[in-house]
Amino acid sequence: MTFFPRSALFGAAILTLSACGGGSEPSAPSAENPVENREVTETSSTDTAPQPAADEPAENLFAALPAPYVDADYARGRRTFKLCQSCHTLAEGGQNLVGPNLYGIFGRDVGTVDGFAYSPAVMEADFIWTPEMLDEWLTSPRNFLPGNRMSFAGVRKPEDRLAVIAYIMLETGYAAE
Ligand code: HEC
Fold first, then answer.
1. Residues in the chain with pLDDT < 70?
2. 87 close to ligand 1 (CB < 6 Angstrom)
3. Ligand 1 mean position to 100 CA, how many Å?
4. Contact 119, 144 (CB under 8 A)
């Protein structure tokens, strides 16, 4: 009679042990679960990163331009040109405003648009317009060519200059040499 309850107790002890084991096993993976969840969140956030790029226009309008202009941002260039458009037109045959028409500017001598009255400073200057020269001019028109009459402070941000130059290249028929 005493033997039977002991084996029952022993069996209960085994059940308790296995219940403990069973209880501790799921607790370990559940501690890892938050880590797994965090990894999933990180993965999904990197997954979303390329998506805005996929939303950009499929066609790179600057594709034909040389580096670094090929990588410029078209919308930024167009927007930055608004700083110039009260004084300059870009289209072929466009009129001179306060400043000369800029069509075909690259590869041309400075100060040679027909019918535009340049300042002596520009008339005396002697160089050919390249994207690099325009970058210098736009960084600080006053310092680049002291005495010129382009009353414009300049384009401070390099990425804005890059973009507006790319935009002007595109709009004025830039031809790579
Ligand atoms: C307030 C009017 C005004 C603004 C704004 C202006 N320009 Fe000018 N720009 C001029 C004038 C005036 C000249 C001629 C300067 C001279 O003769 O001294 C000129 C000359 C130039 C020239 C030389 C042209 C040539 O035939 O050699 C370039 C290039 C030029 N500007 C580009 C720009 C760009 C790009 C912007 C905008 C980021 C800009 N300009 C903003 C008035 C302006």
1. 1-58, 176-177
2. yes
3. 7
4. no
